[in-house]
Each structure stands twice: as structure tokens, then as C-alpha cells.
Design brief:
The structure is a single chain. It is built from nine helices and 19 strands. With 392 residues, it is α/β, with parallel strands linked by helices. Strands 2, 4, 5, 7, 8 and 9 form a six-stranded mixed sheet that branches. A six-stranded mixed sheet has the order 16-15-14-17-18-19, with helices on both faces. A three-stranded antiparallel sheet has the order 1-3-6, with no helix packed on it. α1 packs antiparallel against α2, α4 runs antiparallel to α5 and α6 runs parallel beside α7.
Length: 392
Amino acid sequence: MLTDRGWAATGAGAALVLLWMLLGEVELLAAGGILLTAAIVAIAFVRNVRPEVSIVRHLSPAMVHEGDRVTVDALVSNRRRRLLRNASLVDDVERLGTAEFQIGALGGGDVAHAAYQIICRPRGVYRVGPAAVEVSDPFRLAAVRAGDARVDRLIVYPASEELIGFPTTRGRDPSTHASRPEFSHRGGEDFYTLREYRQGDDLRFVHWPSSARRDELMIRQLETPWQSRALVLLDLRRGVYESEACFEKAVKGAASIVRYLAESGFDADLWAGGTSTIRVADYPQAMEALALVDSADHLDLRAAAGRLAGVGRGGALVLVTGVPDHVLLEVHRLFGREYGTTVVMTAAETTSSNEAAFHRAGATTVRVAPTDSWAEAWTKAMDRSWGSVSAG
């Protein structure tokens, strides 16, 4: 019930009384007695206060990118008839600090408004609240609180940059390619093409007349054409990153390409750890995964890629990493049959010899240092690519 100031006053008063006992100076006793009496009176003052309030908080916007600002508006209502004096609003923001506002006097049924801004840095998910109204004595030696247990969730996405252009993506048929995505939806019922049966395919989609003519099972391709698909794989192995800043830059790169694919109509998936991918079309879910992602010391990227390759749907493959190594090259080879186009985004201070190996394999590489711009490096890489196009 005592505030920090109240405890300080009590401690000082007790010390002065102790000095009076040692030195016998009556002035010390008087000063100590005043401080201790003030603390006792403050406690008695707030004990008679029984605040009952309601607090409504609104965050605008509720989901932001790293570096943005969020405005928090709070409405405080006094639900009792008794006047609340020396009232203040205290609102906690996880890991970012505490906001405190002086309300002053709040009459019965009155409503007070408070607003503050949060600078959203770094990325992550934060709890805003719970908030409380604190009523104190005039000297703020003691206080009593009443609050609202409601907690809001603030999602801070990684910062992203606007990317322009994308390499030509090709399907399994080398004679078929497209320079921009075909805007169709996943799981549509429009007949697209026929392809050979692969283990795990749904037998309901077997095209029996064609299978009889070719003497092998043929599957009707009912989903989105291959050239408008993509898979983004964020390398979470801590060992491939030269610093934490490089890893954060890679996360921003993944966020940028996810944003590009979502805005350009790609039927794309994101892998950022776990046992499954996230649809880029579920943009908030994909960006929240990037907001929470962290690097790991013991991660078998080949095993993870193997699970994804088993359900691979082709199109473009985007690998986001630090310093590319032989493991990432193996992952690229693993996906090579399913994905005709590969872009390797590397966040590193130094150039790796493996970048040349990716070039020889036909991949487009984009490398930036932690202080560089993904958008600028991406544009230069796309200009060098024979299949560069503009998003439209």
C-alpha cells in the first residue's frame, strides 16, 4: 500500500528516530516523527478509498511492423458515486515499459481519456495491460489500485521492404513458363493439365481415359498452375549467420518476399520452423510466425526440407539464409525437380564460394549486409536475371 516514496519516508523517519536515540537531539526525533506520522496518515487515507473503475483500451492499428508506432487510447470510468482524488492511470506494456497518466479528480460516473504511443521495436508479440487506476494521498506516500484484468495482444511484424520484379517461374514442363503469376485460387475445380501419377496423389483425380491410352496412371491437375506457386524457406540454423543482426536481416528478407508474393497473387507457402508450412494468403498468420521466429543451434534442415519435398507443389523456391553452405545446396538439389526457379537471399557480410555453385545451378542470388537494403539488392539481382519481370 505504501508507494516507493512512502517507503523512503518511512525509512528516513526510522533512521532519524534511531539517530535521536544515539545522539539525543530532539530535532531528530521531531523530524522522524513527522515522517512516520505522515506515512501512517497516508495509509489511513487510502484505506477509506474503494475505487471501482472500468477501463476500455483500444490499439490502433492492432498489427504493425517493426519501427511503427501504435496509439493506445484508454477510457477510464468511475463506477462509484464517490469522487476519486489524486487518481492516475497505469498501463503496462510487456518488455517495453509502463505508461502512467495523472487523471486528478474523477467524479462518480465520469469518464477520463488517456492516450499514448508505443514505438514497436523489436518484432514480436507483446501483452498490453493489465491497466489499473491508482488513487493516492496528496503526498503520494500510499496508494490503492483498482484495475481491469483485460490484456490486449500487440503483434509487431518484422520490417519489410517493397520488392519489384521476379524471375520467370517454370513448371515441370520445360517448354512451359510464365513471367508473371496467373491469378487463380488454390484447390479450384478448373481442369488445367494432366501429369503422371506420383505416390501420395489422390486416386479420385485419375483421368482414366488418358491412363488407358498411355498405359500409366495420369492425374488431372486441378489446382493452381505451377508457375504461380512458390515456397519460401527461412533457414533457422544459428551457425549460418555471422551475427544476430544478420539473422534479423534474413527475417526481414523473408517478410519482404512474403509481402511481395501475397500482393502479387502467388499461391505460396512459408516455412519458418515446425512440421508444416503456412499459406502466404493467410498473411497475418504468416507474418506472426516471422514475428516470433528464432534461430536454433540444432536444426536438421535437410530432414525438414525432406518432409516439405514430399508434399512439394512446384513453382518458385525462395531460400532465405545467412552464409549459404553445402547443406543448403543439398536442399536446393532436393527441391530441384519440383521447383524450376530458385532465388537465394543471403544476409551476410562476406561472400561465400557456394554462391557460385548456386549460380551454376541456375539460381538467382541476392546478398545484403545487415545495413543494406533488400529492395535495392533485389532490383539489381532481378535486372541481371534473364527472366526478370515487373509485378503488376
